[in-house]
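Practice problem: predict the structure.
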Amino acid sequence: MNGKTENNQGVRINKYLAQCGVCSRREADKMVDAGRVQINGEVVTQMGTKVQPHDVVLVDDKPVDNNQDQIYLLYNKPRGLLCSRKDDKGRPLIYDHLDIPAHVQSVGRLDMDSEGLLLLTSNGALLQTLIAPKNQVPRTYKVKFTGSLSLESIEKLRNGGIDLGKGEFSDPWDMSIDADNGRHSWITVTIKRGRWREIRRTLDAVGHIVRRLIRVRFGPIKLEEGMPAGSWRHLTSKEVKSLKRL
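Answer:
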């Protein structure tokens, strides 16, 4: 491609497509391998090809616009909604309540019964960075569950290593106990991986059933007190910069 792979200027094609919100870098590599990407009318054949400022990039013969404003949203997800674009069972989806373009995706997911802070963005590269387990971006939750934690259970939760089944074990929890009336307890817990139903499975393994699970923080972004369930807002430029620093 006219020496682009050896030019130190420009942006690698996979990063460029991710920055444009087209897809993740890994998916971009697959597009290149399948011959779906063109630069200035030529099919890209090398993964390391770089895009220059005035290049015209096409994916599936459609132009990619790098000048579009990226979208960054904070949504206070209510209970009872799926973080999915479609559902074969016809259950309600978060996207039924958000008037946003199709390329805006949730940063990870909250399960149907969970609520609270959910980030959404069109920036595919940032999305992949935030959810990658190796980056250990902290997530903080307020959790209500049945009964009281014994001293033994508290120690197990803080130390990690609880058998969750299917060859998985819990990570150590950064945890504080907020309330305990004997019948129900509230804790604040921070974890650094977004595994499937991780908090529910961990508490279930020590004999407690989660009644409410509210995410209140993702990385540096906090859910404001008083923000109604179902409401959303754009992130501030300062918040976006704090995420990109991750």
